[in-house]
Amino acid sequence: MRHRDRKSNREASPLLAAPGQGRKGGHISLPPHVHKKCRQGAAVLLATALILPMSGGNPGAAVYGAPQAGTGEEAVQETGELAETEAGADQRGEQAKAASEAGGAGEQESSSQGEVRIAAAEEFLEFAGNCVAESYSKGKTFILDTDINLQGADFSPIPVFAGTFEGNGHGIIGFSVTGAGSNLGLFRYVQEGAAVRNLTVQGTLKPSGSRKNIGGIAGVNRGLIEQCVFKGEIMAQEAGGGI
User: What's the pTM value of the predicted model, to 2 decimals?
Assistant: First the structure.
């Protein structure tokens, strides 16, 4: 036999049966304090069900703390869009920074390629070794910042030069050429459009072999040599000169 509410004649929930009722006809008997808590819980659930729909929320979502439909989802979407926008802005900022740094590095590299300063014998020897093709020196200016002493150094004449060598009033001293060959000097070939200026050279050129076109500054000059001085000794079979 089921328990019925006397006033409404409706079946009541077995869990809310009156205290003290036994398990009859499917009813569950609950202690008085548990019965009271169940009624209070039912009242809270009923109040929640009445309030949440009025606020436009999702009762189930509100109970579990999840975002409410129509508000939370939009907030999540807006937050995602904001994060995506900020990430894109950060990425564009990094790209712009990288491009700026790359541009700055390019300008610095271009500057270093356009002007090379020489302030030690090691740097001069490195410069001489790099001039195996005119493309290295073409369009560049090499500036001597101090006197260079090549005495005892393993120096070979500069193969080919196509740029501008600015002696800046300094000198290159102590170099010696004794190997076999022709077209020998401090520079072997000064190419058309190249220039050697304001330089004093002191050394000895005593090659063996054919010994043609031996000069203190250049073996073969197709460019410009000005304000230069050679001091030393030159031996040539043919076409020997101080410059």
Answer: 0.55
